[in-house]
Structure formats: structure tokens, C-alpha cells
Amino acid sequence: MKRYLALFVIIPSVVLSSFVIRKKQGLLIVFIGDSITYGGGLENPGTEAPPVATCDGLRKLPGIRRLVFSNQGVSGFTTVDFLPATATVFNKIIRAADDLTRENKGLLLFSIMLGTNDSAIEGPNGSPVSPASYRENLKTIADSLLKTYPGCKIVINRPVWYSPNTYNGAKYLEEGLQRLQSYFPEIDRLVSGYGATDPGRVYAGDKKAFDYFEMNYRTDLQTEQGRKGDFFLHPNKKGAAALGRFWADAIYSAVK
Q: What is the pTM of this model?
């Protein structure tokens, strides 16, 4: 009677992780946001906005075969403006995603950073948006994207710091800044909920940029004139590059 030797090989999880990273894939990113995402105030948003820096950074990382993106940031917009019921705006997101997926192969990912304009005391559409409504608006947007693109991933980044005297065409001030920070746990609750209903599809994105800009606003944010003196809200060229790196780290974690 022949005897056979059974051999069991245990591969450490670290090794398995490296296998995943080495498997290169295409990445198609649609950035959803406001003027910060768009690159408001920058000399050349098309080459200097945060999404450009994000994708430049991602292209240098292992596992990214090819990357294309669409910047759908719109100045002054809130989560209310991006709701699917606002067909004109939401349909632009759909057209951007369709264009990317029609012409390229790879993983479709939506990177979202909204909340700055939601937090305003008055001015932007729907402001001030309560923390609960902010979460529900994000969920409505995410649900529609997940349904439309069953294979996509979504990364939701925290909105970033602005000075407590911010008051341009819209009124933010200290009240707005406090409301902005109340959105952070709502993002975490939303992502946690998707972890139960749609595991592996919706991720908490960057959580570091807020503190970074609070500490480095004089070197990384534009000095803008407002009704309460000079204020700091939009990243300058240096700050846009820094924000792009934070987003790249968050997106890469989701892709891995």
C-alpha cells in the first residue's frame, strides 16, 4: 500500500498582504468636493489642486498599474447640492464615472470630502447642516453610487480646518468650525454601518489633515481678506500638495 505525505504550509499574513500589493491594477478615481477639492484660489487648479497631488503620489506606490481621475469639486457646494435629487449636479458625477469606466479598465473609487460649506452659519445651500443631516446626506450619496456601480469603493475624508474668523461671501466663524468638527464622528458612524451592510466598500479616509492645517495654516493656507479680517480657508500650492498626500495615503489603504 502506498503512503502519501501530507504537507501543510502556513504563509504569514504579512506575506499574503505583499502578494496583494504586487498584483497591479488600474485605478479610476472621481473626486467629489467643494472649492478645496477643485483648487480654489490656486493659479493653476488643473495642475495644482489636491486631486492632482493625490494621483501623482499614488502612481509612485506599488501595485498601481495605471491611474486616471476626474476632479468634480465645485466651489461653494454642500452635501445638499450633491444629493441625487439634485439631478444636474449628481448626473455630472455619474457622467464622469461613466467616462472613466468606458475608456479605462480598473477599480472605480470615489473620494469624497464635503462639510466645509455645510458647517457655515449662513450662505451655502442648506447651511447650517446638522450633524445628523450631514450623515444622512452622505449616506444618500454613497447609497446611490454603490447601487449604480456595484464594484466601486468609496473613501470619505474628513473636512479640514479653517480659521475661526472665516467670513467671506458665507459666514463660518467659530460656530462653523465647531460644527465642522461635529461631523467627524458622523463619518465614523456611517463607515461603521457600511462595514456591516456592505463590507469592504466604504472606508474612512484622511483624519490627519485637519490638525496639520491648524498647525501650519500660515505656510499652507492662502491668506484671504474677509469681513472679520484676514482668514485662512483654502490651501495654497504647498498646502494642496500636502492635502493630496494625505488623501493618497487614505486611498491606498482602501485599495490594499
A: 0.90
